[in-house]
Amino acid sequence: MISIIVINYKSKELLEPCIQRILQQTYMDREVIFIDNDSKDGSCALVQEKFPNVTAVCNSHNSGYGGAADQGIKLAKGEYVMIMNPDVHLTPDYIEKCIARMEEDKKISV
Questions:
Q1: What percent of the chain shows pLDDT beyond 90?
Q2: d(CA 3, CA 47)
Q3: What ranges in 25-93 are assigned the alpha helix state H?
Q4: How far apart are alpha carbons 59 and 38 in whole angstroms?
Q5: In what order do the strands lie in the sheet with 55-58?
Q6: Which residues contact 70 (CB under 8 A, 6 or more apart)?
Q7: Distance of CA 46 to the CA centre of its chain
Q8: pLDDT lower than 50: segments of the chain
Q9: HSE-CB of 100 using CA atoms within 13 angstroms
């Protein structure tokens, strides 16, 4: 399984297409974790409403990118972890190709 962590700060307009692209991936063994750094723009409400299967963490303070990444990693259950920004647009087979490559050469996934 791969844990995909989306770190957000005031990017509400980017969230729906970002998460949709994650959920449209051909690689299905995944979990999605959304960490919001106190955006106050409705980002958390949008994710909770539109994507109930996404684990949403709505921080009451901005812990910065590193703090949010650490938070997501602690929640992650996957063998692999992917941290991304909301402005990333994944091709449908992106994760599948990454996992295949890491499985092929264990040195690159240590």
A1: 95
A2: 17
A3: 43-50, 64-75
A4: 5
A5: 55-58, 30-36, 2-8, 80-84
A6: none
A7: 15
A8: none
A9: 7
